[in-house]
Amino acid sequence: MTEKTTIDMLHRDALARAADQAVRAIPPAWPLTATVAVNPFLGHVGEKLDITAARLARIGGVRLALPRHHYADKIAKGEISDDDLVAALSASTSASILAHRLDLAGLKAAATREPSALEALPTIADLAARASGKDWPGLIADRIGVFASGYFDEGQALWAASRRNGIYAAWRAFATHDLTPEILGLKGFGIHVSDTPETAQAAIERAAMRFGLGAEPGTYFHQLLLTLGGWAQYARHLQWKAELDGNADQTALELLAIRLVFEEALYIRHQSKIAKDWRDVRRVHVQPLVPSEDTLIDGLLQVAAERASERRLAATLALATVAKVAEPRPLLQAAFCIDVRSEVFRRALESLDPGIRTLGFAGFFGLGASHHGFASDVAEHRLPVLLKPSVFTCSEVEPGGTADRKARFGARAIRAWGRFKLAAVSSFAFVEAMGPVYAAKLLRDGLGYGKGHKPDAAAPRFSFKLDLATRATMAETVLRAMSLTQGFARVVLLCGHGANVVNNPYASALHCGACGGYAGDINARLLANLLNDPEVRQLVAQKGIEIPADTVFLGGLHDTTTDRITLFKADVDHKKLATDLRRIRDWLAKAGHLVREERALRLPGATAGSLASRSQDWSQVRPELGLAGCRAFIAAPRSRTSGRSLEGQAFLHDYAWRKDEGFKVLELILTAPVVVASWISLQYFGSVVAPSLYGAGNKLLHNVVGGIGVVEGNGGNLRAGLPFQSVHDGEAYVHEPLRLTVAVEAPREAISDILRRHGQVRALFDNGWLNLFALDDQGRMAWRYAGDLDWAGIFADEHPTDIRKAVS
Questions:
Q1: Closest CA to 30 of 386, 420, 500
Q2: Terminal-to-terminal C-alpha distance of the chain
Q3: Would the pLDDT of 99 be above 80?
Q4: Residue 552: in which H helix or E strand, if any?
């Protein structure tokens, strides 16, 4: 047995673990058809934020903070006060490291000095490029991009790569015949590929030994995956989905092997010139991660900005409001998704009449549905991606019947036709052949008169017959989770949301994140149908939830680009509701107008009158701003936030802890909606502070590839995350990167108990990815979570005279 083989056997397990850890440090990226926000730091929540910042500074060359002048401007304007800065110095663990030379004056002075630019550690490809003067990293990105766009293709390409034996085997077959690397100077690359091991793990082991990494590659594997951009993230998504179903997927690991084969070929070719530099780089990769002084100062300024935001939120929640003279029984209760865009509509709607109540609940309305639409042959998972479908639904067509087969055939034909139009090879042929036929449609749509997407008129239903007991249990569970167990209105509107836009690859990103990147109309209508069932109501009543006989649940859809609401009145006996519906439609129309006036102030070039037309404008890169600006999650009775403007920046979840037996609903809120909201918040955070790693670039340069994502330009890496236009209005950021403030009205002991039992959720707070507060019985932010299941009181007494000072 040779020494090399012995080394391989000794280190195989360690290298396998290191490769797996590198893969899991990459966030998953969902395809454009069902885009959902993903926390780009998902693989790092087990470590402190400043450690992740040090890691990404080392291997990505990025700072997890805005330029210092952003904070200096806020300090100069008084938006960040001295108290905020002192609080940051006092609370941060980094303060002790800097205490001997940094005080309030020093921190303010540091805010005026920009740190030196960061540069990532060079890869072997970078070192070879310096030695040869050739852009090897660009070549690698191009060739992997060309291959991956065909391999991952979902129907756009005319010729797709075989997936039979995995991506590594498919790439080896491709690379041995790809002459581009050799034409551009990487001689013998095809032969090198043919000599590589047949398994990805063996290829990783061979490269690691050749590079002298031993069993500990440190941060090197992670860096190589980062250089693959969205391709690695999409592969990680495939692994995520497989593991959710109890399976395994090696695509991301095999992509790492492919990247290492390129590194190996370049190392062999340029070893004599780069060996010394590579040894120096290799040593840094295995060193412990220690935040630099600049990183610590950035962290302190970030905490100060968040303290300022929390101070303003606390002041808003502490405001006294004039109690409305409520009707004995409200005419309308409208349940909206907790999405921050709903806060503006809820506030506008409630302002119109004291007979209106609104509620906030996750937009999939507790029904984890896998849905087949009337004109679709694809199962749409309308639920948070953290969960598996629990029910299977379809539009009101007999499955397997003639109408069903025709609908599915039509869906396939439409999708194939759309892919033909998008395919690079056929685009010119399509214009040549179909231009005259499409002239009128192109003119109409180009001028903004297209019809856009319409919600499915067919009523949804459960695909498989659910017994009465199961349906009643579902109904009871959802009502208790909504804190809606008494005081039912005459009409209860269950309002999902979606976005109706054209010519926008990111259309699904504007839909409901809780519905897996789809609109929430199906779930709302399903729940309304369930709660209108007399037999279900009878059983639910036996569990203590009495729904009046005249209460009608009605499904609706809030179009967040136009702020118009569609009512699915055909699902109920609307003739009996004619008078009520006229009044409700009038309220919804007036509320929509108020919302458009408010939203137009934030959108560049928008007016209340022109806002709706933006969704049908082909040239519009900002049909709406999505969830930009999100900064708080509040779980409390609506009375704590009613009448107060939260400026469309808060997720609002109704919760009454005294009705929550055993705190089961609280546990659900902290482990599901809060986590989903954290994914959204941190995706915006990452897309602002580290756009080169976690942003999608400029929409104006995007080309859709494979039907799954976009590239910036004509090839290279897939771009994942949010486009520049989603976080910036052309003059300034429309999203300030702040970690989410989670405020919950519940006993601290109950919150701590849940965190104790859910380590991953607790890590989000303990490691500084989210900030947690407990509200007192007056709705004030009374306690701050200090980490390690400990709490710090904010108010010195029960009635503080200065709320700003108290929160600081």
A1: 386
A2: 67
A3: no
A4: strand 552-559
Q: How far is CA 504 from the centre of its chain?
A: 18
Of 558, 528, 534, 566, nearest to 548 (Cα)?
534
Residue 772 host element (H or E): strand 771-775
Residue 73 three-state SS: helix
Query: What are the pLDDT digits (tens) for 233-291?
Result: 999 999 999 999 999 999 999 999 999 999 999 999 999 999 999 999 999 999 999 99
Question: Residue 783: beta bridge partners?
Answer: 774, 793
Q: Which residue has the tokens 């003059």?
A: 731
Q: In whole angstroms, what is the distance from residue 665 CA to residue 41 CA?
A: 27
User: Is pLDDT of 199 > 50?
Assistant: yes
Q: Which two tokens stand for residue 315?
A: 């002041």
Beta bridge partners of 792: 784
From CA 641, how far away is CA 694, in angstroms rounded? 33
- CA distances (Å), origin 609, targets 454, 499, 600, 606: 21, 18, 9, 8
Helices first, then strands: H and E counts in the chain: 30, 20
**What is the residue extent of each domain of the chain?**
3-45+122-285, 49-119+291-308, 332-628, 629-808
Q: How confident is the model at residue 504 (pLDDT cuts 50, 70, 90)?
A: confident
- C-alpha dist (Å) from residue 564 to 334, 474, 624, 629, 707: 14, 29, 14, 22, 30
Cβ atoms of 718 and 231 closer than 8 Å: yes
Beta bridge partner(s), residue 73: none
For 530-540, b/e burial (b = at least 16 CB within 10 A) is bbbbeebbebb
What pLDDT does residue 517 have? 92
DSSP 728: B
Determine how many CB atoms are found less than 10 A away from the CB of residue 191. Answer: 11
Average pLDDT on 141-154 reads 94
> How does DSSP classify residue 733?
B
Q: Which pLDDT score, from 0 to 100, does residue 411 have?
A: 53
What pLDDT shows up at residue 70? 97
The pairing of strands 380-382 and 369-372 is antiparallel
In angstroms, the CA 88 to CA 301 distance is 7
Q: For the residues 637-648, what does the mean pLDDT come to?
A: 95
> What burial class does residue 28 get, using C-beta atoms within 10 Å of its C-beta: 0-12 exposed, 13-18 middle, 19+ buried?
buried
Q: Is 156 helix (H, G, I), strand (E, B) or coil?
A: coil
Among 575, 451, 455, 624, which Cα is nearest to 523's? 455
Residue type, 401: G
Tell me 5's DSSP state.
H
Is residue 2 over pLDDT 50? no
- For the ranges 245-249, 575-579, 721-725, the lowest mean pLDDT is seen at 575-579
The type of residue at 292 is S
The DSSP secondary-structure symbol of 512 reads B
Query: How far apart are the C-alpha atoms of 542 and 485, rounded to whole Å?
Result: 12
- Residue 466 is given by DSSP the state P
> Residue 454: which residues within 8 A CB-CB, separation 6 or more?
none
735-759 pLDDT, tens digit per residue, is: 999 999 999 999 999 999 999 999 9
**Chain position carrying tokens 């002192």:** 86
- For 638, which DSSP code? G
Tokens of 352: 């119109």
Q: How many CB atoms lie within 10 A of CB 752?
A: 17
DSSP 44-70: GTTS-HHHHHHHHHHHH---SS--HHH
pLDDT digits (tens, 9 = 90+) for 398-448: 545 555 555 555 555 555 555 555 454 445 455 555 556 555 655 566 555
Phi, psi (5° rounding) for residue 118? -90, 150
Pair 474, 530: CB distance under 8 Å = yes
pLDDT value, residue 808: 38
Calculated CA dihedral for residues 283, 289, 292, 295, nearest 10 degrees: 130
Which ranges of 508-577 would DSSP assign to H, the alpha helix?
Answer: 521-531, 534-542
Characterize the bridge pairing of strands 491-498 and 332-337.
parallel
